[in-house]
Write the structure tokens for this entry.
Amino acid sequence: MLTGKQKRFLRSKAHHLNPIFQVGKGGVNENMVKQISEALEVRELLKVSILQNCDDDRYDVADQLVEGTDAELVQVIGHTIVLYKESEENKTIVLP
């Protein structure tokens, strides 16, 4: 689990990032979870945006992504989810 201080640090790091995944009408599926997992291994920190036509609640979507990717939820703000997962091979972010 991340501490409050670590979450604040990661939020500041994520601020300038653009969302690279979008959850739409279909919701979260296996293929999307796999792709997000692979992206997290490379980037460690990423944003996922939830489109207007997504039927699921944004917190449900966040939970599904956290569960599927084994990542940490940094924050849900508006229609954007910030996820963090420590990389095994490409570690670049050093948590405080």
Summary: The chain has one domain: 4-84. The chain has a mean pLDDT of 92.
